[in-house]
Amino acid sequence: MPGYTGTKDDYLKRLRRVEGQVRGIARMVDEDAYCIDILTQVSAVTKALEAVSLGLLEDHLAHCVVEAAKESDEAGAAKVREASDAIARLVRS
To answer: What angle separates helix 35-59 from helix 8-30, to the nearest 10 degrees?
Structure first.
């Protein structure tokens, strides 16, 4: 069971909002909106996705990593490595 199960509805609500924002950005481009206004909206979407990412990461650490660490040192270390790799990908993006 994923660590985000308890907050799944919240994540889905946020992601639907982001989806609407992205459609709005596409409409802005289609309507030749001012570049800075489009960039402002892109920035808002980026921040919203970062918030979702950080929430999922926190849920993963609190649930998946903790449970794996209880299982064995090796399983815990593998989940920590997995989380570290995910953090590295988020930081690079």
So the answer is: 160
Say how far apart CA 4 and CA 10 lie, in whole Å.
10
Can you tell me the distance from the alpha carbon of 24 to that of 29, in angstroms, rounded to the nearest whole number? 9
The per-residue DSSP string of 8-77 comes to: HHHHHHHHHHHHHHHHHHHHHHHTT--HHHHHHHHHHHHHHHHHHHHHHHHHIIIIIIHHHHHH-HHHHH
pLDDT digits (tens, 9 = 90+) for 47-91: 999 999 999 999 999 999 999 999 999 999 999 999 999 999 999
d(CA 21, CA 48): 10
Question: Among candidates 82, 81, 61, which has minimal Cα distance to 4?
Answer: 61
